[in-house]
Structures are given as C-alpha cells and as structure tokens.
Design goal:
The protein is mainly α. 80% of the residues lie in helices and 0% in strands. The protein starts with 11 loop residues before the first helix and ends with a helix.
C-alpha cells in the first residue's frame, strides 16, 4: 500500500501575513473582551446587589418565622397547661373526694385521647364514611359524658374542640376532592 504525500509550500511572505493577521485578530479579540466586561460589569454589580438584598430579606423572614414559631409553641404549652388543670367542684373539696381525680384514666378518657389519632388515620387514608361515623360516635360520647359527668370539664372541652376541628378538616378534604 502506498501513501501519497502532498506537500504545501508556503512562502515566508505568506507566513508573515498569516502571523500578522493572527496578531491583529488576537488584539481585536482582547479589545472586544475588554468592552464586553465593561458593558456587563454594571449589570453584574446590580445583580450582585440584588442578590445581597434578597439574602438580607430571607434572613429577616427566617428570624420572623423563628419568632412566630417560638410564640406558637409558647402559646401551645400555655394552652396544654390550662387544659390539663382540672377544677374540683366546691362540694367535693369539703368531703375530701373529687369525682374527677382518679389515679388511672377511665376507658372514656383513654378513648378521647386516642380519638384524634383515629381521625387522622381515617382522613389520611381517605376513608370519609368511617371518619363521619367516628365523628358521630365522638359527638355521642361527648354528649353522654356531659350528661353523666364522666369526663372532667377540660377533657370534655378538648374532645368537643377535637370534634369541631376534625369536622372542618373533613369538610376541607371533601371540598378538595370535588
């Protein structure tokens, strides 16, 4: 197999012209780059300042959210402390016996403590009919507990509040599904 070689001869004058052309092209490219940097420099500075301003605003928002979270947690702890305190009727104090002070929670109190978790599971699984039945049962238990005074006022109020809140959540979920 034969390889054919082709040689191009460039005269020294053409090489000088080519070098001169490449040097001119290098100078023009450097000048264009310098102009481009100067033109875009103000945009770069403006964008950097905007980013800096946004970072400051984000820091302010983070601080506000932290403050609000602390306030909410403080309020929630205050509400929990108030709702856990039980009031003893005047007549019970005189006899030294309180109908609300048991060492162990009753079945109704245990049920009312587990009730929100049950509703949470039912709504998370979109078992709407069962959630409605559970809310009806909760209303029935609350009415019965109020009538027979089997729950402390704080627990009864908590149960009623839970029922009201979960009715709203269920209604919101139904609206989203429609």
């Amino acid at each position: 197999m034969r390889v054919k070689l082709t040689c191009f001869f460039i005269c020294p004058q053409e090489i000088r012209q080519l070098c001169s052309f490449l040097l001119d092209l290098k100078k023009a490219s450097a000048e264009e780059m310098r102009r481009s940097v100067y033109i875009n420099y103000t945009a770069f500075i403006r964008t950097s300042k905007e980013i800096s301003d946004l970072e400051g605003e984000l820091l302010s928002i983070r601080n506000l959210l932290s403050t609000q979270a602390a306030l909410i947690h403080g309020l929630a702890e205050g509400v929990n402390i108030d709702s856990l305190s039980t009031t003893v009727p005047e007549g019970s104090k005189a006899h030294g016996v309180s109908s609300y002070e048991d060492n162990e929670p009753s079945d109704i109190e245990k049920w009312s403590a587990e009730f929100p978790d049950l509703l949470d599971v039912l709504l998370a699984e979109s078992r709407v009919d069962e959630a409605l039945d559970a809310l009806d049962e909760g209303e029935r238990v609350a009415a019965e507990a109020k009538e027979k005074k089997t729950l402390s006022p704080a627990v009864l109020k908590s149960l009623q509040t839970t029922i009201t809140e979960w009715k709203k959540k269920l209604a919101d979920q139904l609206l989203l599904e429609v």
